[in-house]
Amino acid sequence: MQSIKHLIKASTFLEDITPKITEKSHSISSGESVELTFEKDGGYPCPEITIRIDSATPDKFATSWTGSDPTRFPARVKAVATALRDLGMNGVFQVSYKDGQLSIQKDTDNTFSSLTEGSNLKDDIESLFKGEETAVLSIELWGLMPAFEFTGENLD
What is the pLDDT of residues 103-126, one digit of tens each? Predict the structure, then answer.
């Protein structure tokens, strides 16, 4: 997981998408998958990216994006992250973009809400299943790796 800085200056993408997110904020907050259209299409397709908006880090957001150069982070997704922050919509979201169409969905189950920078995956998983004799958990961690199965025994 890496951090990307929010927009600090106005952008046409931010001005375009903020009212659309505002209009659909109830649906987004309830975890519905919402499709929004940018006025200006084009740009590179962006497969599903996970972003975490947290009021504790107002200048940046966490993402599953694995690019090595943060200046190449998709501008439309950065605008979405900034709009969500500006609207006070914290949480984990799945975002994708292709041909002017943006898809956004909030993770409302909070399955991995404790996962933050510096957290320990093993400890997080163990805390989820503490007291269970055997636990099987299939997860996809922030889109960073394919789903894998974790089997823990005697997690006390």
Answer: 999 998 764 444 444 444 555 555
